Amino acid sequence: MSQTQTAGTSTVWAIDPAHSEVGFAVKHLMVATVKGVFRNFSGKVVLNEQNLAASSIEAEIDVASIDTRQEQRDAHLRSPDFFDAENFATMTFRSTKIEKLRDGNLRAAGELTIRGTTREVVLDVEETGRGRDPWGGERIGYSAVTKINRDDFGLTWNQALETGGVLVSPDVKITLDVEVVKQ
User: Fold this and answer.
1) What is the domain extent for residue 159?
2) Which residues contact 111 (CB under 8 A, 6 or more apart)?
3) CATH number, residue 106
4) Which of 42, 100, 172, 178 has its CA 20 to 30 A from that of 56?
């Protein structure tokens, strides 16, 4: 058996932004969770199902496309206090390791870059389904989640509360619901 047959073949899958969502959630005033999304993003998955270690994920998110359903807050998040979208227009993720877990789910470790700062993050990934669309294309759905500390990426703006705690929690939950299309 040749090296190619042993290693399997890789296929390329592009994120379908019309059927995907990049979301986040953060505590506000230490009492409520505020959620938001990024409207503009792209990415691809190189999938080798016989050799998952040969697979990879790349994604790019337009930080100016942030949407928390409140324009004043969105403008503040785009400002130098947070994302500094004028100087750091995108955030990126590039996987460094993908592994299958015992329960069939995946773990994708990689480098997340926000505001020019890169840190390792681990995404817990679940394949949510696969099949053919009405036009003959192949699609796979994935749901992924991770948590980051925004301070680690230079998003340190905050305000102390008289009652204790801070206005915006440093912990941010990131959720991805992605549909990819075989290229």
Assistant:
1) 3-182
2) 92, 93, 94, 96, 118, 119, 120, 121
3) 2.40.128.110
4) 172
Q: Is 101 buried (19+), middle (13-18) or exposed (0-12) by CB count in 10 A? A: exposed
Answer yes or no: are the C-beta atoms of 126 and 150 closer than 8 Å.
Answer: no
What does the pLDDT look like over 92-147, one tens digit per residue?
999 999 999 988 899 999 999 999 999 999 999 999 999 999 999 999 999 999 99
Length of the chain: 183
Position 5 scores a pLDDT of: 42
**Which residue carries 């792209």 as its tokens?**
42
pTM: 0.90
The domain total for the chain is 1
